[in-house]
Prior knowledge:
The protein is mainly beta. The chain has helices spanning 96-101, 108-116, 157-167, 198-202; strands at 29-43, 55-64, 68-79, 82-90, 127-133, 148-152, 171-172, 183-189, 192-196, 238-241, 244-256, 278-282, 292-296, 311-315.
Amino acid sequence: xxxxxxxxxxxxxxxxxxWPISQEPKLLGFAGYKVGMTHILFIDNKKTTLTKxxxxxxxxxxxxxxxxxxxxxxxxxxxISGLKLVSEVxxxxxxxxxxxxxxxxxxxxxxxxxxxxSISDIKDYDDIRIxxxxxxxxxGIGKKKAEIFxxxxxxxxxxxxxxxxxxxxxxxxxxDVFKEGQQVxxxxxxxxxxxxxxxxxxxxxxxxxxxxxxxxxxxxxxxxRGQGHMMYRVAHAGQMGYHTRTFFNNWLxxxxxxPEEVNQKGGFSHYGIVxxxxxxxxxxxxxxxxxxxxxxxxxxxxKKIPAEPPSITxxxx
Length: 317
């Protein structure tokens, strides 16, 4: 079964439920829009492969990453139920994209003045997080409403606060968060397939034509069926796709602010032209084109993947 329950995601972009620990004061994640796939040629720099030092071919996913904007600083206090929001300081001039998504305080300038005067004196908190939002207006995908979500910070308690003050209300480029060659965990919502039967959903074999009642169904409904009990392991029809999934240790091959290096003539199919910084991630990434993809620092690293970026010799346009 792998995943259960197989139900629809609550929203179109993924929720990050756990964050890695880092001593460096910076954002522990970023987000971008999936452009599509292409292939590249690069010099293999893995130490344990037979093709070490040779030029090899690899499929890559292009993700456009316009700068994120820090909307507010959130202060959390631990209690018996987990983290509880105790205070929040917004940027002085929030963007219109933010006002479309959440209800801002009516007198936000006065509220910020009251809180900023004592923000350095706040000590009754255990964690700080940053509320950020995307800027889809900088891309060519035709999207108006921005996505808004929280990002965790690395570092100690005091360094988190100092870093949060410096980025509040400012744009954060991806080069300040990730570097080429590192591994990232990808959080995304997969392509939606709708309501599907057990053959397509779980790969059951179609029974012979003389089977009773149905051919495209399971041969047995389980041991306790007679008592009105249905085990969740029995393959049944239901929602397929549009699930939140996490993919660990994806290799970030390239970060660049020169979109002409990857732009195709006439733009990418169903997406358009890349206008901002972009990244190349080795292999495929879940979700359809234009969907927001969230990347975080890895929870654990794969020792077989080098920490240095490979030398890319060719990118197919």
